[in-house]
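Journal club prep — side note

Before the paper discussion, L.F. wants everyone to see what a predicted structure for a comparable chain looks like in token form. Sequence:
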Amino acid sequence: AKLARYSNTGPEICVVAPSSGGKRGIFTTDVSIVNRGFNLGSAAAGGVNGLHTNDFGGTSSATPLVAGVAALVLSAHPNLTRDELRDVLKRSTIKIGPANAYDASGHSDKFGHGRIDAYKAVRRAASLLAVKTASKSTKAIRKAAKKAVPKVAKKVAAKLRKAPRAVKRRRTKK
């Protein structure tokens, strides 16, 4: 993977997203006003109607791409905190660039934790929600059991109190 010349680097980088650093720019919608936007009506630039462009890029495309993936993640698990969302994005990336660019914690000063992957991020968020829901169910069952066990224990203790204190042993003939 090649780092675009305009990319930031350093320990603050969390994830990266594609931009216009490859053979083409990002294909997206364009301004729908005649003679405005990136594509003024060229098929080669995204379509003769000018409603799309394949020449969009840079941080202007990478940043909203990450924001869009974050929105998809939150649609799968709306109660994630900011830190949990960041963790989901970091843990669902695809490592790019040389393996030795990443430290022991999986971070690279050039590529952060890797290139975002919307599919993996949404799947991870959905699985976290399922685990959280199951955990809440388990907690509810444990709480109900804690309430029920003392009641049952009291009943058993009462029955034991009513039972004879000594049990006669049968004598066996030798």
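L.F.'s comment for the group: The radius of gyration is 31 Å. Keep this in mind when we get to the figures.
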